[in-house]
């Protein structure tokens, strides 16, 4: 489990594409400082398992399901990625409950600069719209954010200077694709209510 607080901006060191999978080498000395084989690290919001590591980075396998649901398949050497280690049991919740299970992707449609902050707008896939509410939580490329506004097929967030500086969201432009994970609590509530209604009927 993660909290959506990015610890490090890593760099893609290498990509090996298979028929239905990929192997990524990620450079990130902070997140591997206490890594072990089998540890979980979120890469742009996707929970991945460390297969090998050294003092400067780590290697992960990315399966077809993950490539289909996320933007990881488009990564190339030199690309920057948001990195977060799994939350320890005694850690603090700086963001919200993030599983690292990406629900889909969105595209940046606009960036509007403010004084020291910036509003960024995204497309909202139809299948995820029901789980996105104003002032609710959403994870964008692994970053825990508060929804500033939401429409039928779009939503927007406001990024503070720290987020702009320390995550990939400060460097992406209109047309770029990002990973989305909606609030898992909303999905559980929907599932419970649906089953209850089916049981009554």
UniProtKB/TrEMBL annotation:
Keywords: Repeat, Riboflavin biosynthesis, Transferase. It catalyses: 2 6,7-dimethyl-8-(1-D-ribityl)lumazine + H(+) = 5-amino-6-(D-ribitylamino)uracil + riboflavin. InterPro entries: ATP_synth_asu-like_sf, Lumazine-bd, Lumazine-bd_dom, Riboflavin_synthase-like_b-brl. Pathway: Cofactor biosynthesis; riboflavin biosynthesis; riboflavin from 2-hydroxy-3-oxobutyl phosphate and 5-amino-6-(D-ribitylamino)uracil: step 2/2. Lumazine-binding repeats lie at residues 1-96, 97-193. Signal peptide: none annotated. Catalyzes the dismutation of two molecules of 6,7-dimethyl-8-ribityllumazine, resulting in the formation of riboflavin and 5-amino-6-(D-ribitylamino)uracil. This is Riboflavin synthase.
């Amino acid at each position: 489990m993660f909290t959506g607080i990015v610890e490090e901006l890593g760099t893609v060191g290498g990509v090996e594409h298979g028929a239905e999978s990929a192997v990524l080498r990620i450079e990130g000395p902070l997140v591997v400082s206490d890594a072990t084989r089998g540890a979980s690290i979120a890469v742009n919001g996707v929970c991945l398992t460390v297969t090998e590591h050294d003092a400067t980075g780590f290697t992960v396998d990315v399966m077809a399901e993950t490539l289909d649901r996320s933007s990881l398949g488009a990564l190339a050497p030199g690309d920057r990625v948001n990195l977060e280690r799994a939350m320890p049991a005694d850690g603090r919740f700086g963001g919200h409950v993030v599983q690292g299970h990406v629900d889909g992707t969105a595209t940046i449609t606009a960036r509007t600069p403010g004084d020291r902050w910036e509003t960024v707008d995204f497309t909202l896939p139809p299948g995820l719209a029901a789980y996105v509410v104003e002032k609710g939580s959403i994870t964008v490329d692994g970053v825990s954010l508060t929804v500033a506004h939401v429409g039928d097929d779009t939503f927007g967030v406001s990024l503070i200077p720290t987020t702009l500086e320390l995550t990939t969201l400060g460097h992406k432009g209109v047309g770029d694709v990002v990973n989305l994970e909606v609030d898992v609590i909303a999905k559980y509530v929907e599932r419970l209510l649906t089953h209850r209604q089916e049981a009554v009927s």
